[in-house]
Fold this sequence. Notes:
Layout: E1 10-23, E2 26-41, E3 44-56, E4 67-68, H1 73-86
Antiparallel strand pairs: 1-2, 2-3, 3-4
Amino acid sequence: xxxxxxxxxxxxxxxxxxxxxxxxxxxxxxxxxxxxxxxxxxxxxxxxxxxxxxxxxxxxxxxxxxxxxxxxxxxxxxxxxxxxxxxxxxxxxx
Length: 94
């Protein structure tokens, strides 16, 4: 059986971030998992959508439900990075 893409022209990138939040004087570490979907046009790469999920590295609690996170701080940073790549101001992904 051959592998087929559900959405032709859309590529997936998975990455994680580690954040530290302070509640009073206590630091809480959160690991966030990101699924970024990109498409390439003649002018460069564009974000299609992004989903994220948070997991606390200090508790045994389950991860949060998957959420659409394109408008969050990581999604906005990705959009700015892609914009800069299209403008030729930084390295682009191939």
